[in-house]
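Try it yourself: sequence plus magnesium ion, in.
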Amino acid sequence: MAPPLALDIDGTLTTPSGRIDPRVFELLPDWDAPVVLATGKAFPYPVALAHFLGRPETVIAENGGVAHVDGETAVLGDPAVPRAVVEAYEARGGEIGWGDGDTVNRWRETEVALSRDGDEALLREVAAAAEGRVEVVDTGYAYHVKSPDVSKGKALRRVADALDIAPEAFVAIGDSENDASTFAVAGESYAVANADATAREAADVVLDEAYMDGTAELLTDLRERGE
Ligand SMILES: O=C(O)COP(=O)(O)O
Ligand SMILES: [Mg+2]
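Structure, out:
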């Protein structure tokens, strides 16, 4: 049998320009084990991806702030301090940066995501004043202001438990610092070649290929290994 998967989305299942790579729709619909989509994006995004893959909606969103498995949603993070920090950042002239009708945060329940065009130094200064009650995570796609109490890895433990699978049975693939906690929980972890330094350091293996080229090759190998 193929191993269960914990898959990051941006940078891992995408092309360099941020589109979902079409090979996702070849490799994942019939994957013969649970697939957990574990992302920094808001909850509707991985749910929609699972839905259009024809797979169970087994997802971790908001960097572990929200988890959904077997039809049950767990909201694991508290947005109060992240929101207060971002208000303080805006009060000092910082911008969230997504423009009008911000769909990045519209459905976000436990954290705030900011455009990387924003003032990182100011954001980190304001976050530091919260004295450890928030952390700023740079995924390469956004700055996320989140509670340090939630992570994709912690949520993976919870989802694995609900699925009655040992967390170590999972193979995790990712590209950035928000995947390091998943890598620590899964039994086998891979960073795609475009991964940041934190993800590369945390992964068991850094793949030769980047983005979905790396992920697709690995998934093909894992599938063959399970046959
Ligand atoms: O939303 C982001 O910033 C990154 O999303 P990801 O965790 O799927 O890479
Ligand atoms: Mg990513």
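One thing you can check immediately is this: Residues 8, 10-12, 139, 174-176 surround magnesium ion (ligand 2) (CB under 6 Å).
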